[in-house]
Amino acid sequence: MATSRALRRAGWYLLLTGLSLVVLFPIYLTIVRAVSQPVSYVDAGQPLHPVDVQRSVFGDAWRQGHLASAMLRSTVMTVLITVAEVVTSVLAAYALVFIRFPFKRLLFALCMATLLLPIEVTLLANASTIRQLHWIDSMQALVLPFAANALGIFLLRQAFAGIPRDLHDAAKLDGYGHVAFMTKFVVPLTRPVLGAFTLIAALTAWGQYLWPRTVIEDSDAWTLQLAITRLLGTRPEQANVGVAGALIAAVPVVILLVIFQRQIVRGLTAGAVKG
Amino acid sequence: MIARWRKKYKAKEVALGLAFMAPALAVFTVFAFLPLWRIVTWGTFESRQGGTRYEQVGFDQYREVLTSATFKEGVWHTVLYVLFTLPVGIVGGILLAVAANRRLRGIKLFQTIFSSTIASTAAVTAVVFFFLLNPVVGIFDVDWLQDKHMALFAVSLTSMWQNLGLTFVITLAGLQAIPEEVVEAATLDGFGPIRRLFRITLPLLSPTLLFLLVILTVSGFQTFAQIDVLTQGGPGRSTEVLLWKIFEANSADRVTIGSVMSVGLFVITALVVFLQFVILERRVHYGNE
Q: How far is A202 from chain B (nearest CA, A)?
């Protein structure tokens, strides 16, 4: 009995390890290719281990791709979009839950309707707006269209609605106005949901591609996601520089994922479990 | 009416409520609702002389564009892309989640590995596969990206891999929401592991799977970075998905045609979301109903 249980456990570990290898295989091959000198690597018959290791490749990618300024730009864009989304979502969700005003259902429905109007659908008209404002290549062009987010309003409204009505009444009796109640009670009490949404908002903003590609024409103003494609045209003997660029671009997100795994998972699954 | 409102609402509250809603509504108005109105109306104009002049043609252009071979081709490529990526996403997610949903020492490590592709953005994934699919420095000797019949499938490999982390995380959360007693009861009733999976776990997981189906389909319709990095719509037009055609129409002479295609994308996406919910609503098992 004991041996059969041990055997079964070994079987699970074997399966889990096998699946891990499948998931990690593209990443592993990419790292091997990045650090190997491409010509030697191909000559060696493309083995599963690095050949003729080139340590300089990450520095080369960093410089040739102008990744420093691109990373800074992506970081600024991500922070601005995230802060804007969180602020506008908190305000709207708070109003929808705690403030009495007419047409609430209609306004909420309008917010949710924008889930059907992603940037992919409205691309051409939004691009025209940005051109008319002479905002091509500008930071505000990258940020403003994403300064509000229906998913954020939805999630926060749900979280705020879970706060007991009595708490609101008690706070009101104690002389708390709406702003004080929001900042001192509502926001701290819903920190888990806020944190999860903040991280998802940041990850989404960071990974943007279509919109920056549309409104950033000057390659000196590219975000990181665009800049890593600059290294694609390099000759085969430099192919590993392109790979290295992509790996560099993944580092900030990997760090976020390692630190905030639980919050990110909560954010990603928020829509799934509650329906 | 006004008198009733006076009784029901306080002016100060109403002003504050609207003020709190205003930033979000302003963004939505400028960057979602007005643009929708603009693409719908632009579609009724035809561009003349390379986009220096536009002529009102009513809904003639809608009929022309929506029945054109180009539009159908874009939709077909998009549907194919979803058909390639969706089964792998769902089955892969279930496989990884079922394997990782157990009490074992070190299971957190495996769960982290399985969710790791979340860290890879579309562009990063595309660049990585650009090299993996390259016939000289890549893993295959054949150049799928230059092969008209293989290119779209080759591009879809990027999404198949990239989606794994997301589908795993969502499916695992769904699995963990299933009460253990249900599974234990089934085991006591003599259900084997395979029968438990198909008769108990998957039916209880159906709301999660439905959610996955919707987000994978919608994200398939929004595929862009991979096409831009890997094929630019080629070879020939074999990887021109609908969104790529819309992106290419971002110029004065093509924008009105692109607008019609955008409306098409809007309607198709909305229909997919709506249909999946309506059709599956009845067959899906919801836990507490």
A: 12
**What value, to the nearest 5°, has the Cα angle with vertex B285 and ends B283 and B289?**
120
pLDDT per residue of chain B (289 residues) written in tens, 0 to 9: 677 777 778 888 999 999 999 999 999 999 999 999 999 999 999 888 888 889 888 899 999 999 999 999 999 999 999 999 999 999 999 999 999 998 888 898 999 999 999 999 999 999 989 888 887 777 777 788 888 999 999 999 999 999 999 999 999 988 988 888 888 888 888 888 888 888 888 888 888 888 888 889 999 999 999 999 999 998 999 999 999 999 999 999 999 999 999 999 999 989 887 876 676 665 555 544 3
Residue showing tokens 């596969």: B129
In the chain, the amino acid numbered A52 is: D
What ipTM did this prediction achieve? 0.91
Query: What is the helix (H) or strand (E) element at residue B48, kind and residue range?
Result: strand B45-48
Per-residue H/E/C for B203-265 = HHHHHHHHHHHHHHHHHHHCCCHHHHHHCCCCCCCCCCCHHHHHHHCCCCCCHHHHHHHHHHH
**Is B131 close to A30, i.e. CB distance below 8 A?**
yes
**pTM of this prediction?**
0.91
From the list B16, B173, B215, the residue facing A178 with the nearest CB is B16
Q: Is B46 helix (H, G, I), strand (E, B) or coil?
A: strand
Task: State whether residue B104 sits within 8 Å of chain A by CB.
Answer: yes
